[in-house]
Design brief:
This protein has 154 residues and is α+β, with helices and mostly antiparallel strands. The chain has a domain at 4-80 and 144-149. It is built from four helices and six strands; from the N terminus they run βαβββββααα. A six-stranded antiparallel sheet has the order 1-6-5-4-3-2, with helices on one face.
Length: 154
């Protein structure tokens, strides 16, 4: 649910694209993301050492495969292991509220079932909106940075 993959092709060579990206910094929401090379692929990692508040941040892998004069770029973003616990707890809470609502519905407790269903939906909607504003926005900005480096060409 938290992993996003995006692919495109460019006419630039693999080495040219690497040289344009390696060492670059992307600034998103006053956070610094750096492009590093590791094991023939690129990683875009956040520098969150100075953060006082808790933020959910992605780590992005950029794989470059050259084929017939074109380079296929595959961008995969995942949540940091450090950050995944909180969002998973919220999802588990939503599922438990939904299950409790179903059980109460079977027991003919329509009022409490509706309240729990509403609480589950409201919690999930707020959770999703907050993720859109922070985590998924970072992913879109990182994808845009990689696209701009490769002069996007389908």
């Amino acid at each position: 649910m938290f992993t996003r993959t995006f692919s495109y092709q460019t006419s630039l060579s693999k080495e040219t694209l690497k040289s344009r990206l390696i060492g670059n910094h992307v600034n998103i929401h006053n956070l610094d993301f750096e492009v590093l090379e590791k094991d023939e692929s690129l990683r875009i990692v956040p520098h969150a050492e100075q953060l006082d508040e808790i933020k959910t941040l992605p780590i992005t892998w950029v794989e470059l495969n050259e084929n017939g004069g074109r380079t296929k770029v595959k961008i995969t973003s995942r949540m940091r292991r450090l950050d995944i616990g909180g969002p998973m707890l919220v999802l588990i809470l939503c599922c438990l509220l939904l299950a409790a609502s179903g059980v109460l519905l079977l027991l003919k407790e329509h009022l409490f079932s509706g309240i729990l269903l509403g609480a589950s939906l409201l919690t999930f909607i707020i959770f999703r909106l907050r993720l859109e504003k922070s985590y998924f926005h970072c992913i879109r900005k990182i994808q845009s940075h990689v696209l701009n480096a490769g002069y996007y060409a389908s």
